């Protein structure tokens, strides 16, 4: 999130107000189906896609992507 300049607040906004992208979702993923939610943040109008794992006991953020800017991030 930090590398792509996406805040926790923006993630919450997209979860609440975004649109599901069925083409990028994978309801058959195991052990948890994944859903892609997209939208624009209120703070800086960043176009964001979230990939969320819908597990039995929790909704887990897998990744977040800025759809208009390609950041070169290195995950540790």
Walk me through this protein's architecture.
- The protein is mainly beta and about 80 residues long.
- It has one domain.
- The chain is built from 1 helix and 4 strands; from the N terminus they run αββββ.
- It has one helix spanning about 10-15; strands spanning about 20, 35-40, 45-55, 60-65.
- A 4-stranded antiparallel sheet has the order 1-2-3-4, with helices on one face.
- The longest helix has 10 residues, at about 10-15.
- It is globular and about 35 Å long.
Which structural traits does this protein have?
76 residues, four-stranded antiparallel sheet, 4 strands, 13% helix, 33% strand
Computed structural class: mainly beta
What is the number of strand segments?
4
Uncertain regions spanning at least 5 consecutive residues: none
How much of the residues is beta strand, in percent? 25-35%
Distance between the termini: 13 Å
Main sheet properties? 4 strands, antiparallel
Number of domains: 1
Q: What is the gyration radius calculated from CA atoms?
A: 12 Å
Apparent shape: globular
Query: What number is the mean pLDDT?
Result: 91
Instruction: Give the strand order, joined by hyphens, for the main sheet.
Output: 1-2-3-4
String of helices and strands = HEEEE
Q: Roughly how much helix do the residues carry, as a percent range?
A: 10-25%
Give the SSE map.
Layout: H1 8-17, E1 19-20, E2 34-40, E3 47-54, E4 59-66
Antiparallel strand pairs: 1-2, 2-3, 3-4
Short description:
With 76 residues, this protein is mainly beta.
């Amino acid at each position: 999130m930090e590398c792509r300049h996406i805040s926790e607040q923006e993630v919450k906004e997209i979860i609440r107000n975004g649109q599901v992208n069925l083409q990028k979702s994978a309801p058959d993923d195991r052990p948890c189906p994944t859903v892609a939610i997209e939208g624009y943040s209120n703070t800086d109008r960043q176009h964001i896609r979230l990939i969320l794992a819908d597990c039995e006991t929790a909704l887990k953020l897998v990744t977040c992507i800025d759809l208009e800017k390609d950041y070169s991030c290195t995950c540790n």
